[in-house]
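sry for the spam today, last one i promise. struct tokens for design, 522 residues
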């Protein structure tokens, strides 16, 4: 029987069935036989040779397995030791290569997310790998390039047709992300140059409200232009000058002096003072009703209609017939309910009043905070928010009757009535008020959305309504009694598939992936 098994082992080696021969040679009686010892040496050399072939073909797992069998048969022979070292070096080199490829793919992902498609594509090519992650990134790169080119084509066509506002509608969602793209930069620069010239003409002609409106349009492109900084500073200074002029109550001073003059008819200086205050009152009235007064009105969508027809939305340009929504009206009874996130009061308009519930002035945002709470007004102009109050309130623990609000400002209307002003998305004019201590009539609502044109819902801190489960932001653009929803993912309205963009009416239930919400009136 021993002779038979020795013959079987020899035949297995001759037929290159090395693993079968290895199993036979594991028997102690075969290994103890002189002929078995010769077969052990022969089989070990065959395993070393096969391992070398595996190593040359970068099959490191198979090479390592054959090397271990050779070592188990013949011990740590020089050729086996050399083979083990070669396999170890190859494994280390592969790990270094895989690590370098992983770093390249991670860098490519960062550049894609930053809108730097050319750099990202170059890194993907340098990675020289065809694994699933690389293929997914290449597909995403192709999709992003196709989307960018489609938007550029539509925006360029709109601009060439003289409709720069429609071009902005197309570019607004992509300009900030792809600001480094040469084509985007060139087109944005053309649009900005044309609108800047119109803004300058509006200022020179005294139409400060129209200048502010135009500036708010071009600011959506998030493209820094020195001339626009000059315009923005000019409008802010005009607005500040108007506020200072408005704080002078010459008429009240005139009435007081006239009463005093009846008591002191021989006080000639009072007559002179009355005369001066009459002139001052008339001058201030003319000043407030003139071009400077328009600085406090803020952007007005209707102003653009004087020189340009209403621009369709991106969807309308694509042919689905959706018209551009009009500017939102001030409304204090519109609420947004997002499942799993919370409720928000939505207030539109360029001037929003805040005060105690039940006050005779009927504020847009009515707080359940006692009758002693002072009333304030938040005026939005050119994307900026100004706080006005008849009496000083604490802003960041400092008393003030007027201030240009910045992100994070804390407004105290009383010891237990505090508001925090936030601008999550700097490119959007929409802001958020977080309530602390103060309460609305609806106890489940702790935040107020000060609506300009749109509400951004999506992941991260730059969304007005944060939903980290969404893969990308969605934009709810406001109209009078309806909204237009722009989203990359499929949208359902009242359980039915909606178009892109989707029209959302008050009371509709909307679902986008993990997000579901509804707009309602009380």
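last one done:
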């Amino acid at each position: 029987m021993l002779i038979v098994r020795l013959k079987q082992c020899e035949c297995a080696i001759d037929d290159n069935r090395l693993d079968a021969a290895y199993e036979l040679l594991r028997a102690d009686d075969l290994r103890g036989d002189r002929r078995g010892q010769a077969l052990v040496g022969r089989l070990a050399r065959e395993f070393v040779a096969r391992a070398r072939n595996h190593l040359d073909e970068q099959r490191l797992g198979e090479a390592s397995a054959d090397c271990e069998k050779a070592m188990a048969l013949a011990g740590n022979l020089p050729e086996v030791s050399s083979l083990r070292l070669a396999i170890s070096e190859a494994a280390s080199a592969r790990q270094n290569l895989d690590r370098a490829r992983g770093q390249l793919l991670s860098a490519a992902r960062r550049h894609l997310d930053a809108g730097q498609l050319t750099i990202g594509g170059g890194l993907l090519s340098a990675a020289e790998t065809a694994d699933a992650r690389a293929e997914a990134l290449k597909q995403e790169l192709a999709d992003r390039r196709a989307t960018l080119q489609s938007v550029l084509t539509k925006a360029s066509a709109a601009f060439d047709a003289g409709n720069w506002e429609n071009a902005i509608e197309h570019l607004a969602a992509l300009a900030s992300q792809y600001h480094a793209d040469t084509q985007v930069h060139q087109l944005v620069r053309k649009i900005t140059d044309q609108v800047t010239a119109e803004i300058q003409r509006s200022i020179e002609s005294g139409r400060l409200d129209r200048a502010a409106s135009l500036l708010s349009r071009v600011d959506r492109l998030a493209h820094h232009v020195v001339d626009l900084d000059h315009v923005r500073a000019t409008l802010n200074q005009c607005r500040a000058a108007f506020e200072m002029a408005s704080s002078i109550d010459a008429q009240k001073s005139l009435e007081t002096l006239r009463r005093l003059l009846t008591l002191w008819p021989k006080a000639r200086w009072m007559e002179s003072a009355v005369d001066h205050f009459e002139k001052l009152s008339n001058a201030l009235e003319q000043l407030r009703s003139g071009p400077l007064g328009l600085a406090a009105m803020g952007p007005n969508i209707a102003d653009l209609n004087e020189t340009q027809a209403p621009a369709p939305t991106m969807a309308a340009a694509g042919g689905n017939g959706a018209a551009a929504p009009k500017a939102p009206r001030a409304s204090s009874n519109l609420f947004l309910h997002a499942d799993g996130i919370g409720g928000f009061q939505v207030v539109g308009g360029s001037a929003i009043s805040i005060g105690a519930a039940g006050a005779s002035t009927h504020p847009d945002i009515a707080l359940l905070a006692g009758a002693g709470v002072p009333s304030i007004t938040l005026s939005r102009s050119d994307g900026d928010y100004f706080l006005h109050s008849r009496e000083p309130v604490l802003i960041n623990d400092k008393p003030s009757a007027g201030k240009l609000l910045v992100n994070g400002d804390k407004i105290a209307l009383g010891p237990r009535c505090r508001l925090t002003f936030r601008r999550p998305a700097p490119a959007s004019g929409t802001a958020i008020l977080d309530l602390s201590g103060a309460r609305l009539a609806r106890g489940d609502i702790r935040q107020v959305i000060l609506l300009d044109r749109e509400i951004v819902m999506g992941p991260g801190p730059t969304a007005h309504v944060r939903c980290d489960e969404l893969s990308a932001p969605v934009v709810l653009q406001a109209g009078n009694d309806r909204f237009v929803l722009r989203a990359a993912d499929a949208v359902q309205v009242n359980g039915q598939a909606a178009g892109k963009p989707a029209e959302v009416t008050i009371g509709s239930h909307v679902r986008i992936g993990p997000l579901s919400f509804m707009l309602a009136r009380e």
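Residues 202 and 211 are 5 Å apart (CA to CA). ok im logging off now
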